[in-house]
Amino acid sequence: MNALILRLLVNRVALALLSLLVVSAVVFAITAVLPGDAAEAQLGQDATPESLAALRHQMGLDVPALERYFSWLRGMVTGAPGTSVVTGMPVGDMIASRLPNSLVLAGLTTLLAVPLALALGIASAVWRGSWFDRLVSSSAVAVVSVPEFLVATLAVLVFAVQLRWLPALSSGGVDSGASLADMLRAFAMPVLSLCCVTMAQMMRMTRAAVVDQLKAPYIEMVLLKGASPARMVLAHALPNAVGPIANAVALSLSYLLGGVIIVETIFNYPGIASLMVDGVAQRDMPLVQTCAMLFCAVYLLLVTLADLCSIVANPRLRHR
Amino acid sequence: MNDLQKLHGALDHTGGDALLQALRGGATRRDLLAMLMGGGMQLALATGLSATALSAHAQTPRRGGRIRVAGATAAISDTLDPAKMANQTDYSRGTMLYNGLTALDGSLTPQPALAESFTTKDARVWVFKLRKGVTFHDGKALQPADVVFSLMRHKDPATASKAKALADQFESVAATGPDEVTVTLAAANADLPVVLGTFNFLIVKAGTTDFNAGIGTGPFKLKEFKPGVRSVAVRNDAYWKPGKPYLDEIEFVGIADDGARVNALLSGGMDLVAAVNPRTVERIKGTPGFGIFVTQSGQYSDLIMRKDVGPGANPDFVLAMKYLMDREQMRKSIALGHATVGNDQPIDPSNRFYFSGLPPRPFDLDKAKFHLGKANLGSAKVPIVTSPVAMYSVEMALVMQQAAQRIGLNLEVKRMPSDGYWSNHWLNSPVGFGNVNPRPSADTLLTQFFKSDAAWNGSRWKNPKFDQLLVAARTETDVARRKQMYADMQVLISQEAGVGIPLFLASLDAHSTKLKGLSPIPLGGLMGYSFAEHVWLEA
User: Fold this and answer.
1) Nearest Cα to Cα of residue B55 among B109, B115, B4
2) Higher pLDDT, A22 or A58
3) Are the CB atoms for B61 and B516 separated by under 8 Å?
4) Which of A130, A194, B174, B321 is 20 to 30 A distant from B111 in Cα terms?
């Protein structure tokens, strides 16, 4: 088993490094063909050729593109992703000020969404065809079909504006002086909105995977030897279903870091997705690229973790 | 002029103090009338006076309190460097932390600020006397060197100043005394005090390279600044304006989403939010405890008809289009009443150089038809280029399209995406819409948009007489004579330029009714972005 995991890990790390290199080159190429650069974005209508040239020199944009890419890459390899051309602050510091916020939001959402999705998914697999299964499945489809901006906006209108139970903005939740109660109140609506988006997919995948296993002949054997229904599902069916479930969970979670721009916008939450969008709007290449690397790395990490999970959980793979 | 000065002026004796005291003590208008009639005063004066004094009674500012304010933009490029300030979020923070040599009032007339006085003989050499005893937030005294540094740094291309084009007119800025700075211009400009009252020319400490500390002479000191997220500023107890500011602390955040901004206000999370959509006005007004603060300003969206290519080359087509604008309907149905009707003159009624003598141009289909017939364009379609980024231009073009159908003119409304509109379509389309933000002075506006060689002269209107008047008005220091020159220029533009200006748009901010002291400064919303030192919170 150890050999299998080791081989997978070595393979994955090598592939991940290659992917990151390719992604960085692609992101750089795409941003290079965007109209305008950081100097034009900053000067806007007031740009004159003279001030543009001066600002470009100041921002280091007057060196050839390839040279800029490689110097950024060198920095990245040595752990220094460079400085933002717009703010002059180190990119590492800018990300460090936003990443914890995003991790808190993603973490809280995960804590709530994953157990709930798994529980609901398993329950509806066990009682498939019942009114419970139909209710859960159809509401999952309904919730996932409603765009998150609608969910979030309606939640704000009801809970913040009408009832005044919760704050309309969530930025207060990460203030240094915020108490636990403040935090919970601030995070209630964004976490709820994100749960709506992410839960349905995980739940339906869990249900499908478990149902698949429950139809297998070995389950009949388990029943014949007299195992309880709980044991049958949790100890026998579930371990074999972990593969697809873990992958669905990984996909949903990777979305929580970079894909939550709408929720960040509606709740004015200073997360890393809006930092990257800002970076694109200002044509701040070092920032955009470092964010892209980060999202890509997190995605690869989660997918690898999911594969590890399915190996470790599956007896047949584990004992090979 | 404050209330007391108005009273002194009106009464012309020192009894005004006693009178104002009586009013603050709660004297009614009837009591006041009796007092004034007893003193032989006229009824008309009494009425005006009681209005002034009663407002003074109702508005005794309270000290203390903390407010949260939301601007409409937030980005990592948020800056506290006056030279780089580019939007309302930057401007609002700028006026909390810094002062200019001058400050613009409700009619955009420059008033003394860090400069106690400014004088000139020829509008070319200007002497600014600095206020004594002003200190920066770190305790250093304001000196001429700070002013020289703050003004001259804009000329250095490496500063990448937004105001470089304006600063290029400074031939020299020099300290000419312990508290005196002399600015010499390349050519006369009577509006220099106006220019120096704008945000990019706020005064910083000599030699500053890192502006994130926000050290200025302003009413508030910086406590926290995270670009793209928020700033917190606390009261500067050593502020040079006696009694000001009123508030203890201001938190300023940028919320880009319109809906989120209004929801934040209505849920009690904010006390003042900038730039609300006219369509949410009724909702805000309908919620108890909230109000709308309207700033009628010089912002306009204009129909530009190029005089060098396309149908606009024919003056009759231009006139026909101007008569085709149903301005009143546009005001009511597009701006929902939050606008004033324009008369194809680019100077708006809130400006001190607005010319009110121009006869209003009516919505007149007969005249439009007559001029269209004279233009003899045939039955060809005329495309009008619009974009949501030029505020209301799509809707305005549709209103015109409807009217044009009634006289047999086929206008084709082309709606372009916001991205790249300014560089690709604005100024290039034969007939299309643009948008102009409020400018601090009539001269700036006319120089940028109507002078024959102006880069943004969208209609390519060239009139030597206009250019002469423009330059002459710049050097004229007599305000009455200047006003006449600007009137002549407005008549020329309204009659000849290929620009139709249907409306002047208002800026709308929303606030908690506990927040007092807001009064418009037509440089933009949020009191021309300088609300910080003026507003106070009701107990």
Assistant:
1) B4
2) A22
3) yes
4) B174
What is the residue whose two structure tokens read 């509006």? B191
pTM for the predicted model, two decimal places: 0.80
Pairing mode of beta strands B290-305, B102-104: unpaired
User: Closest Cα of chain B to A195: distance in Å?
Assistant: 20
Q: Is B367 on the interface with A (CB under 8 A)?
A: no
- State the best of B66, B267, B421 to mutate against chain A, taking most chain A CBs within 10 Å: B267
Contact check, Cβ <8 Å, A53/B157: yes
Are A275 and B259 inside 8 Å of each other by CB? no
Contacts of range B243-246, beta carbons closer than 8 Å, 24 or more positions apart: B243/B61, B244/B219, B244/B533, B244/B534, B245/B219, B245/B220, B245/B532, B245/B533, B245/B534, B246/B61, B246/B62, B246/B63, B246/B64, B246/B65, B246/B517, B246/B535, B246/B536, B246/B537
**pLDDT tens digit sequence for A32-66:** 887 777 877 776 656 667 777 888 887 888 888 88
> What is the rounded distance in angstroms from the CA atom of residue B321 to the CA atom of residue B497?
12
List the single residue in A with minimal CA-CA distance to B74: A278
Q: CA–CA separation, B233 vs B531, rounded Å? A: 13
State the nearest Cα–Cα gap between B402 and chain A, in angstroms.
33
User: Complex ipTM, two decimals?
Assistant: 0.78
Q: Can you tell me the distance from the alpha carbon of B506 to that of B275, in angstroms, rounded to the nearest whole number? A: 10
- At B259, the amino acid letter reads G
| Residues A121, A233: Cα–Cα separation, whole Å | 12
Rounded Cα–Cα distance for residues A70 and A82 (Å):
12
